[in-house]
Amino acid sequence: MSSEIEKQGLLKIENDLDYLTSCFRDVLITLKEIEIANLLSQIDSSSVDASILFNNPSNEKYIQACSILFQLMNLVEENAAVRFRRKLEDEKGPAAIRGSWTETFLRLKEAGVTEEQIAQLLPRVMVMPVLTAHPTEAKRISILNLHRKVYVQLARKEQGNLSNWEQADIEETIKALLERWWRTGEVYLEKPQVASERNNVIHYIRNVFPQALHQSDQRLKKAWQSFGFNAERLFHPDDFPRLTFGSWVGGDRDGHPYVTAELTADTLKTHRDAALDLLVNKLQELAADISFSEINNHPPPFFQQAIIELEHQIGAAGADAVSRNPREPWRQFVNLLLIKLQQSRKGNQSTNGYQTPSQLTHDLGTLRKSLLEIGSRRLVSDLIFPIERMVQCFGFHLAKLDIRQNSTFHDKAIQQLLAAAGMSDTSFTEWPEDKRVAFLTEELQTNRPFLVPGSSVGSEAEQVIGCYRAVKTHVDLYGKEGIGSLIVSMTRSLSDLLVPYLFLREAGLSYDLFQVVPLFETINDLKNAPQILLRFFHGIGGTISRGGGKYHRFLESMPSGTVQGEIKLTV
After folding, report:
1. Rounded to an integer, what distance in angstroms lies between the CA atom of residue 358 and that of residue 395?
2. How far is Cα of residue 407 from the mean position of the Cα atoms in its chain?
3. Contacting residues for 370 by C-beta, under 8 A, at least 6 apart
4. Percent of the chain as helix, strand, coil, to the nearest 5
């Protein structure tokens, strides 16, 4: 059965690629690019004759055409993969999908794990994908948007019972998108800036991950129901696996001289603004949907009191929000939450905004409870749960920004700090490990910084301390949720992991707010890693190849007890 489905999938890839290639060829002919259009007819879907490209004086346009064609091939294959999965699931059942929730629950049941045990395990699972920067692979945001729009039209084309006019409209839309794509160009005119890489990351987190999160949650719910498990055990976001996100872009300064303290501060603020925009949009959608009248639905007294208190807290803007929708208490309540969320952009400088995501979660909990009181369990699941889940996963920070620097760079910064402090022995890089550890351990017993305001230090120290001060400014204003790990590249010894705490002290930051993470990158360092980790902290760790392997298979291969429900991975 699956082999027949595979044949259908391969045929679909061939037909869809022929269709898009034909559309692209028509666009090129319309634009008088006849020679390039003819080239497309010579390119087989599985191979390209490089001599056709590089022996032609107009090879830049030929390469651009081939680049677009290959990206169209990727879109076609992604679409076919989704169709293959759906067809396999329809014909052989959800458990046929390896790694799916249904297949996982089936294996757990066969192993004798009970429903109650599974329900207890799910909230303990935490996954944190961390997006890293690959400038040579980064695509412009305008191109990514065109990818998405072409994909949508390709999926729309598969709908049954489309009229000839509708089919023609889809084809014309695809051609218009391809012309925009061709005119936009594929190549950056200059080396991509860090801000461009950051925008690329934010594009995925804002536009792709929320939908993927929703689909994953829906599949989990369906799998849970298919086994006849108690629906009440999987009704609140706290019952679900925890998914959060991280990023290196704007915080990874190892070999990136353009990642300055100012850029890090701007990245943290950009992340926060994007997260708030995401939540504001969801609340606006909710306000439009939750148009229940108090005439037919009697709001509980506690809910009416909550509206009064919010209106009073917000002031004139709150009164205006309530007066806009008379006798629609649920919409009034959501509009009040919107005002508070908008004012949260000011951080702790706002008197009426949310200081933390947990405060918004509390108010959403009040909304959830009010709907349950009037018997609207289905609407809680459909309207409230998705927003609660987004607050849980994205918070007000979108993604945690890791701060990364090389151990050698840190050593130079420490030497410069010692010199600025007037110490007699400043050759920190030449000290033996025991002396380094003893010095750092003693220094970290006090809160006294090396530098006084206005002190002049060397370039490396200025860059490192400047970064940590930018972090402190953000933490003081918005809290620590937007900050990820302090990563030390080329970790060689225990002292390399103690150095960041000295920088934290220098910037006036609390040690317990941050996690220092080693990167062991040489053979010798990897051999010494177990001893270093034993001295530094008690815990477990492991890495998964960034070569595109299947994570669930990697985890299955690890020794029993290695994985305790949490995994952080770079992608």
Report:
1. 9
2. 27
3. 299, 300, 302, 303, 330, 333
4. 65, 5, 30
All CATH 1.20.1440.90 domain ranges of the chain, comma separated, are 277-394
What would the pLDDT profile of 100-134 be if each residue is shown by its tens digit? 999 999 999 999 999 999 999 999 999 999 998 76
Report the phi/psi class of residue 191: left, alpha or beta, with left for phi > 0 and alpha for psi in -120 to 50.
beta
In the prediction, which pLDDT does 513 show? 86
Alpha-carbon distance of 432 to 434, in angstroms, equals 6
The class level of CATH for 277-394 reads mainly alpha
- Kindly give the residue spans of alpha helices, DSSP state H, lying in 421-562: 433-443, 459-478, 494-507, 523-536, 551-557
Check pLDDT > 80 for residue 554. Answer: no
**Each residue of 16-51: pLDDT tens digit?**
999 999 999 999 999 999 888 887 777 654 455 555
- CA 363 to each of CA 93, 302, 310, 335, 377: distance values in angstroms, whole numbers, following the listed order: 40, 12, 10, 12, 17
Whole-prediction pTM: 0.82
DSSP state of 558: S
Number of Cβ within 10 Å of residue 273's Cβ equals: 14
